[in-house]
## 1
Amino acid sequence: MSFEGSTLVDWTTFSRSRSELGAGFVRILGYFREDGVKSVAAIEAAMRAQNAAALVIPAHTLKGEARQFGAEPLGELAEEIETIARDCVESHDTPEQALRHVVRLRPLFEETLNLLEREANPLVERRPASFGKRPLFEN
């Protein structure tokens, strides 16, 4: 898959974030990996326990961090889980309707993270922009 053509990341937002964070970008992306892994695991555990309240904070955290890097589909999915969870907390209900979203969360997180890390890696050989020239290395 060509990550440049992916719709999982808004590359303009990604580039702006990379520019604004400067030398700290790779470190912050590492925090996103760590926090994201924890958030996804917490969301899955809360879903298994049918605990709407326990879904709210990790979904909210994942939403904000994903959007910081331009990962809009991941941010939207986390927001949907957060919204359902908040509604369930208010109505004292269990979050069954969030299940279909939670099931999609881990694969989307992993695919998005792979794209972000691949783009952030300074050792990745980029394809030349010129037409008709074959790259030395294919990704």
## 2
Amino acid sequence: MEFHRGRLFDHVHLRVKDLDASKRFYRAVLAVVGVPVFAENEHYFTADELFISPADPGAPEGRGVHLAFQAHDRETVHRFHEAALAAGGRDNGGPGERSYHPGYYAAFVLDPDGNNIEVVNHGPARRSATSIVITPA
């Protein structure tokens, strides 16, 4: 078994109100950016560094989490935004240029729990590798 990891986070853990609604939402938007869900059961699901499980009973909604997914191009930003809205997300800023730096093109949605989910393309760039592959010894 092998898995992929980025460089900044080991993982991000979201605790959600409705695991099935979150599975539908994240499957739809992650498919657009080419990141498959690679493990799941009735208690959680995970895709690369993202781990999602049910919130503790009585936990408040929308804890103010912000996640930003990478998009290969501007068209992917549009497709992600459309997929998110179709899968139960709410618009929080449609696709367009942002003032963060030249070439920053992004869209924002709120997931079923009110977390702010971004997809961003930073403009033309070259990667040294598509991902880091980890194979347990």
## 3
Amino acid sequence: MRRWPALGVVLAVLWLFVRGIELTPDRIAGEFLIGLAIGVPVAFVFRRFYAEEFVLARSLRIVPYVGLYLAVFVKELLVANVDVVYRVLSPSMPIEPDVVAIPLRVESDVAITTIANSITLTPGTLTMDYDDDTNTLYVHGITGRNREGVVAPIRTWEDYALVIFGEDASPDDAPPAPRGDLGGD
């Protein structure tokens, strides 16, 4: 099955969310048709930027992992927001920023970018750099001296990303050993 028509339908569904329409059947159908009229041509024009074939079985297999990735991300987002608010409102709360080097098992650009963006979108952490030679992300955290607190959610995201993006490594593989943190005591 060609991928671009399926992507056109996905764009039509996204159109429904972007438009924020009234939830009535006629309104949904009308906006979906508008989304198709926009999404299918856009998908056709950009078809050379993604794989020709669309494997439905693989896509259905990764849906639970996408849901788990998003659930963990939302949980970490909420916890980090509360933590940062607490630190701001409690001046005596120690903030010990540090940079943590996190070697990755994922290797594709899209998987690395997804994880790096998830880190940066979470309050209190920031992806500072990526070393292509060692496949390592450098992450700044306001609780960076608590290395495990910074690394644990990233490893969970990486486990799901390994499956979602069809990486060669497995979630059962041990993560690479860190080369050491940049920050000092």
